[in-house]
Amino acid sequence: MKMIIEKKKIIVLLTVGVMMMSTVLSGCGQKNVIKDKNGININKKYSDEVMVNIDGSKQKYDEKSVTNGLISKETGIGIKYTEQLKTLIEKNNIFTWKNPPDSFNFKYESEELVNLGQSADKKAKEEEKAKASSTGSAESLKALSKVTADAYKELEKKSPKMSFDYAAVYRVPDEKNNDGGKDTEIQMKELYKNIEKIAVFNKNTYYLAYNTDYSNLTLNDKDKANIKNLIGDIKLLKNNICIFPEDDTKEAAVGFKGTIDKFNTKTLDGQNITESSFKDYDITMINIWATYCGPCKEEMPELQKLYEKLPKNANMISICTDAEDEPDLAKEIIDSVKGKFKVIIPDKNIKETLLSKVKAVPTTIFVDKSGKLVGDIIVGAVNENGSISEGYLKKINERLKMIGK
């Protein structure tokens, strides 16, 4: 009899505890949430404790610990993964990237493409290990390097037919002359056939973009089934979106606000380079990229076009963030577009003063003769009437005017 009474007490206590927790969560949600005219739930502020998705469901978001979704303070967007999406991410079939300050993107990669990528990465590690051990001859290392390069070439060749741009959640700031927002809109319209407006909040318009046609891709039956299930989850994915006020995007996305006044390093082709390289030009554009970054590689041909038509008083260089670890791959990427501009291998000072504050690539900054920042920092590529090179050229001319040149 005593045991039964004790069990009843425990049940009552648990019930009360659950009710209290529910009340707390409900209270947090109600105080922090507004609804727009379409009934979309929007959070009035960011919270590490609990926030509300647009359909009213509650979700704990924390940039440091979230494992079942994505959250970005500088974007003002959170996304809870659907079960299908989470499973495919764990299997490496979904490539996810955040493009501060504007979007989250999801791309499906076929099983064959995933296997090719893992094989290429394995060959790259074998090459790196052989170079570190210094046991192989120069010829054997060169042959190993070619094997690695060929593996990545095959991966790049097959990628367009074996990957599916699934979905993106993004925002477009409403401020006038917001070129970053315009660039995002152009990019999304190029990538996705379906674009749904979610809400307007805090001078931003939020969208969900997605594709449903994968008929032109080379996929096996399992890949087709996976993509079909992803498409079937679009409505659920939309409901799992969380909107809240974004941080100051320029400062949050890239914390660098000072001067690049000291560095002494080398370029990919072995030339010495220091901050004195800025002195010969009124404006120097610095494009920051990485060998693993798809959007970075896609804009490389346009960067070479830009380099060929720069004003005489302007220059363009690039910093490859992982050039020290992947010099051969970096050279291959530059050589594939016949790039003539200098590519810097970052030294300790560049890493500490600049790259440590860069949270996304590609990122582009502009400096004057003394290495001082001029104008806004650009995260992602720019576009002018469908041309990336013209977009960057416009930015360079704008900055020349800023310094009276």
Automatic annotation (TrEMBL):
CDD domains according to UniProt: TlpA_like_family (cd02966)
InterPro entries to which the protein is assigned, alphabetical: AhpC/TSA (IPR000866), Thioredoxin_CS (IPR017937), Thioredoxin_domain (IPR013766), Thioredoxin_ResA/DsbE_sf (IPR050553)
Domain Thioredoxin: residue ranges: 254-401
Top-level taxon: Bacteria
PANTHER family: PROTEIN DIPZ, THIOL:DISULFIDE INTERCHANGE PROTEIN DSBE
Protein's UniProt name: TlpA disulfide reductase family protein
Organism: Clostridium frigoriphilum
